[in-house]
Structure prediction request, 949 residues.
Amino acid sequence: MITSTVSLLLACAVFVVYDYATLRNSISNKLVVMADTIGTNSIISLEFQDPGSAHETLSALRLEQHILTAAIYSPNNELFIEYKAQGFENIHTPKNPREDGEYTNKTKLTLFHPIISNNKRVGTIYIQYDLKEVRKALLRYVFIVLAILLFSSLLAFCLSSRLQKAISKPILDLAQTAGEVSSNQDYSIRSKQNSHDEIGILVDHFNEMLDRIQSRDMALQTAKNSLEERAKEKFELILNAAGEGVFGVDLEGTTMFANPAAEVMLGYSPGELFNKHQHQLTHHSRADKTPYPEDECPIYSTFNDGKVHHVQDEVFWKKDGSCFPVEYVSNPIMENGKLAGAVVTFKDITNRKQQEKDLIGAKEEAEKANRTKSEFLARMSHELRTPMNAILGFGQLLKLSKRDSLSELQTNSVDRILNAGNHLLELIDDVLDLSRIEAGGMSLSIEAVELEPLIESVLPLIEPLTTEVNVEIENNIDSNPCVLADQTRLKQVLLNLVSNAVKYNRVGGKVTLSCQTISTDRISISVSDTGQGIPAEKQNQLFQPFNRLGAQDTEIEGTGIGLTITKHLVELMDGSITLESTMGKGSCFTIELPMTKSAEFEYPPATSTTSVESIEESECSVLYVEDNLDNLTLVEQILTQQTNIKLISASRAQKGIELALAHRPQLILMDINLPDMSGLEAFKRLQSIEETQDIPVIAVSANAMQKDIDYATALGFRDYIVKPINIPIFLNAIEDALKRKPDGST
Amino acid sequence: MSSVSYFKHLINFSSHLGNSLISKKHTVKKFIFLSVFAIHIFCGKSVLANNLEYKIKAVLALKIMSHIQWSDAAFVASNNIFRIGVFGGDEVLAAFKSLEGKELIGRKIVVEQITDLDNLGSFNSIFISTYSNLPQQEVLAALKKSRTLTFGETQGFAQSGGIIGFYKVQDKIRFFINKKTAEDAGLKISAQLFRVGKLVGNK
Prediction:
């Protein structure tokens, strides 16, 4: 009703506005036509400057009662003639015309219009129109419209009231019933049927529909209950059958359900956990019995963040007060999109924990055994090298002796002692290397190594052997590729391969070195000889330790583990070694290694092991701290031949420090394994004393492990001489230390 | 007021002033000077006024002529130019000469002074001033059956056979139109012109 009234009102308003606009436009058009007519009739008056005739023309406007004033202006905009309607003589006429166009105020419409003759403006006409009557007419129109509107609204109201009783009310009753059914979900409500017309039929059908929905709803509810019952049964079956403990808690932490496994594991009788506060009952403390606050519990975190929490290292407490380690998963329970609690699945991990404990024990045992093995190897190395030092040292002294020349037989004997000793030393080194490799204790420093200078540093070391057996070495490696390898160990590998190729060659034979790029990142280095070759059936035994493939019966010296070590080293450097051998023609060993672009490494020149130069300097004192008498005697005899050196000795570290303070020697030779304190500690003390801190100290030790050498060098020892002493190297080290100033400059 | 009447008034005024001065025994020299001065003042004003009036009449005549429709036959005798004849003195001629050179209905205007009645029909328009050397009625009589538009300034000119007769109202020059005479002369006068001119008939 209101909508209709508003619509009608709006429509009437539109009509009124439209009519007013139309009327206003028609007045405007009428005024323009009038102005044109008067203008045309006034042209001659303006031409002949005859206001009288113009006034006659204007006076014609008295027939138009709404025209209040009118005037004609000359071309120079002066008032030519004016007209005022009867009763409006007091209205003021503008002295000059305004710009052409219409001007409207509340009650008047004013027009200024040009008078055109022969396309030339000859004047302006001014007409003022009274809009009062128009407005009155408009008001009358509005009043009539409102009256009609009021009448039609009243009529509509009466009609709708009658219709509402007959049609709308039953429909509204029906809608209300539908609303109640919808909001209460109650399908037992029925709409009342008051008539047997169309609406009565509609109500009848509506009630029928409700009957059907009600019966379907009941069937659905029954099916749902049945399904829920079955689901519950299945759920309980699964829970009961589950080996893992499962319990559910609501947001308060109260146990909603727990399966038999959970009850058994926690030591409760069936149903005993139900409605109990889970955290207070089973999760109140940590393994060390310190309290476990609820807000730190991952199960409670699930309530807050709705995420799954997996915990692997906690304990649950049993009813009897004992606890057991558990792994559990806390999953959020979502009900209608909201968190309703958490379901916790847990298992007793006592056995796993025990296994882990056993494993840790076994690992510790293994590590301990490994450490023991390493210590044994280090001690073995030391213990073997100490007597070897005396054997080889005195042997070298005998061979180098100038004053007391030996007989040929004696010389041969000394050579045999030295050869056997060196062989034994080599064997010791190789066995230690192999032990380290097999124990996984070999640490490599992989870097970019330039091949050419490395080969150049290896060849001089082989030179004495090649001369001895008259074998020529042909180095065909003319390029300088870089390989990724441990520089020291690669040198060891090449030395082993080339020395084998020389040793097992025929007299007057040839060893050829070559290399070939396999791909952008791999390179192969080949060492081939012209020996008798290795039978195919024996080639697979070649890399076995101590298997010399019958060479042990020849004069060729060897330990039988060089190639084993070589293979291990090459593989440790991400490489491989292969053999091609043809009986009667020779063998070719090829190693394949990773290749890189460039390297910056300066190789020290190969040290000559044959020349020994005397230390020809002014007399200087050297302090040797050594507890082993043989070693002390050996060094005394080596240095006795150096007339300019005065040797002071001490068998204890403390004594050595005192002597160093008293004599201020130019050099100290320091054993490491000393009875009262280690040589390393003694060195530290010497460094802390102002008077001795600048004296160079050379370590002389049977500790040949690389880590020992690295540690001593890092500590500040000038040099590290490994026993058995190689006399030329030893003398060179002493000479070098004596030549250098304390700051390290020469 | 015409220049003749101005002149008559001036003579009367001068003799009245002269008598009063003689009676007061002033010198003749002074009298002569004052007389010459008065003549100069009044006659000069009269000439100037006449000159302006005729110029206005000439302009009005031109405007009126532009509202009249001539037949082409009217220009056969005038050699296809617009000939305006003037009966009157030099000042009248001079005022109308200001129209010469202008164009009317596509023809150049030529103004000529007329002193006799010969060949009057060749003029398309004739202005008969009060200074005409020939009587007005004779001229009008000579123009009967011609296609000439006649202008005059004497009282009753339009009623007595002329077509357009100028007259003065409150120092403004207006005109009478004799529609019948114009139609007799084969001239069509625009209805607009009747709004500004007064329509008269023959006496």
